[in-house]
């Protein structure tokens, strides 16, 4: 009787163990194509109860991991997110500046304005040519205003994106801390925590899209997450949080931490608008303040700053206006304003949004000069030096100035596009390699499933046989 009981005990434990093994194999197969899912293994150990029998049991569950590949994948994700975000913004910059066109709007407007003055200087008495000059100037001013407005819109968009990213970052940190708690509880209570660990790996990779991070395992199954600079983000069930005031990301003490949150989309968003990095030559960095500064430089090239810098065009125009209304001049007694363009200045910087043709010229209450027009036309072939944030244009004409502004941003866009392609490919490589290394081999799992099912059938057959033998024995005794 005792030997039959022992056999029954062994068979029952085998039945329970193979049931667990079949469940693991089935889960592996059904999740073979689930992103972030790793191959799971049930660890089996033998049992020995002495006279009471023995058998086997599942003692724990493990998953296939590769910490080095995982770290490389997360790092590649952060880098790809950084360049991808900047590349997306620079694509919008190209659209704003029309810099990919064969004849971009800005340089075309300057060229048309110069051509109108050349034609007018040959026929200064022509009212048609005079109107052509005014129309060309109006188009130039209007397009610069449009560019300035679109830069402002992009600036607001990036600011909003940064706020959204900070909110997502806080949620991701909180989610990782929650998973830490669940994993710790499952680990200490002997439950299967491998699916939760997969979820945490996925959450860390998502976190890597926002900024670069590192992690450190704890003995109880929890992890600590840090920035690459060592700032603690998650420690067990506790996570930090950040806020954004439109300029700076701040920690829980209210201290700005822009410089310590590197990598990912967050750094890209901060870098794109950062006025403190206008001397940087890295593509995409400080693009908004550079665009604003360079647009202001173009405006200042056509307008004299009150008490400040002077403009070749504005000076020539003012001199021509004075000469045209002199006592013996053909326009003596007529209204000829000294300014063709108008713009406001703030701390010596021209406001691009305020750049307009003199309203008196537009409404016909003033005329453009008929004397000195060749000198005005000559300013468009005269070279000068211009500087702005991210721009040093020495010995260039007005059209060349516009071309250098466009080419600088286009070059940055081209570099970022190449970097983005390379980094996205690197991220994809690590993602595929990690999945291949830690993921499910369906053929292996199907083979295991057949083995487990046969083991299950064998255990079931033993139980049936023992039951029959016990029934026969009991009947014979009775």
Describe, in short, the structure shown.
The chain has helices spanning 2-30, 67-97, 105-122, 127-188, 194-208, 264-273, 287-300, 312-324, 359-362, 373-378, 398-438, 442-477; strands at 40-48, 54-63, 213-217, 223-227, 232-235, 238-239, 243-244, 249-250, 341-342, 345-346, 349-350, 356-357, 384-388, 391-396. With 478 residues, the protein is α+β, with helices and mostly antiparallel strands. The strands form six sheets. A four-stranded antiparallel β-sheet has the order 3-4-5-6. It has a two-stranded antiparallel sheet with strand order 1-2.
What does this protein look like?
By secondary structure, this protein is α+β, with helices and mostly antiparallel strands. The protein has three domains: 2-64 and 449-477, no CATH class; 69-90 and 163-275, no CATH class; 103-155 and 281-416, no CATH class. 58% of the residues lie in helices and 12% in strands. It has helices at residues 2-30, 67-97, 105-122, 127-188, 194-208, 264-273, 287-300, 312-324, 359-362, 373-378, 398-438, 442-477, and strands at residues 40-48, 54-63, 213-217, 223-227, 232-235, 238-239, 243-244, 249-250, 341-342, 345-346, 349-350, 356-357, 384-388, 391-396. Strands 3-4-5-6 form a four-stranded antiparallel sheet. Strands 1-2 form a two-stranded antiparallel sheet. Strand 4 (223-227) and strand 5 (232-235) form a beta hairpin. Helix 4 runs antiparallel to helix 5. The longest helix is centred in the first third of the chain and has 62 residues, at 127-188. The protein is rod-shaped, with a radius of gyration of 37 Å. The model has no long low-confidence stretch (mean pLDDT 91).
